[in-house]
Specification:
The protein has no helices and eleven strands. Strands 1, 2, 3, 4, 5, 6, 7, 8, 9, 10 and 11 form an eleven-stranded mixed β-sheet that branches. It comes from Cupriavidus malaysiensis. This is Bacteriophage protein.
Length: 168
C-alpha cells in the first residue's frame, strides 16, 4: 500500500553531512586523528599534524576550518545505526568536503536566509549548540564567521536541516 504522506510546505532535506550536488564538489579522503576523532557528520573540522580533528577550542578560528565532515559517499553505514543517527568512524579515513554543497544541522534560534553568513561555534557548547556546529547568527566570541564563500542556500526544513555552499 503506498504512503499518502502530504508535505504542506516542503519535503525534509536529508541528514547532516549528506553531500549535495556531487558533480560540483571537491571531496578529499583524510586520515582521522584517532586520539581526537570527529563525533558527528556535517560539522566543521580542522587539520592538525596531517589528521582531521573536530573544532574543539575557544581559540580555534575560521582560518583553521579545513572543511566539513561528510557521510561516506555513496551512502555507507555499519548497518546497525538507526536512520539518521550514524556516527563517524574513530580511525581510518573520512570524507571531507572542501568545495560544494552539504546538508548541515542549523543550530540556534536564528533562521538561515539564502545567501546568509555561516557561523561555526567554537566555544561554550550548550543544548542544541555543539562545538563545530553551524549557526545563522553571531554569538559573541562563541562563534566565528566563515568567509563569504560559505553561505546558506536557503532556509532550514522542519528538522532544522539546511544546505550550505562551500568554496575553500
Amino acid at each position: 500500500m503506498p504512503s499518502l504522506q502530504a508535505y504542506t510546505y516542503r519535503m525534509p532535506a536529508g541528514f547532516a553531512g549528506d553531500l549535495q550536488r556531487a558533480e560540483a564538489s571537491t571531496v578529499e579522503p583524510q586520515l582521522i586523528d584517532s586520539s581526537a576523532p570527529p563525533t558527528a557528520f556535517g560539522v566543521a573540522v580542522k587539520m592538525v599534524n596531517g589528521k582531521v580533528q573536530p573544532i574543539n577550542s575557544g581559540s580555534d578560528t575560521a582560518a583553521l576550518v579545513y572543511g566539513v565532515n561528510l557521510r561516506a559517499y555513496p551512502i555507507q553505514t555499519n548497518g546497525s545505526d538507526p536512520l539518521g543517527t550514524s556516527t563517524p568512524p574513530v580511525a581510518g579515513l573520512t570524507d571531507i568536503l572542501k568545495r560544494g554543497y552539504v546538508n548541515v544541522q542549523l543550530n540556534g534560534a536564528t533562521a538561515a536566509a539564502k545567501g546568509g553568513t555561516v557561523y561555526v561555534r567554537v566555544a561554550n557548547a550548550s543544548a542544541g549548540k555543539p562545538i563545530g556546529g553551524f549557526e545563522a547568527a553571531a554569538d559573541g566570541a562563541n562563534t566565528v564567521a566563515m568567509p563569504a564563500s560559505w553561505y546558506f542556500t536557503g532556509p532550514a526544513d522542519a528538522y532544522s536541516i539546511t544546505e550550505i555552499a562551500i568554496n575553500i
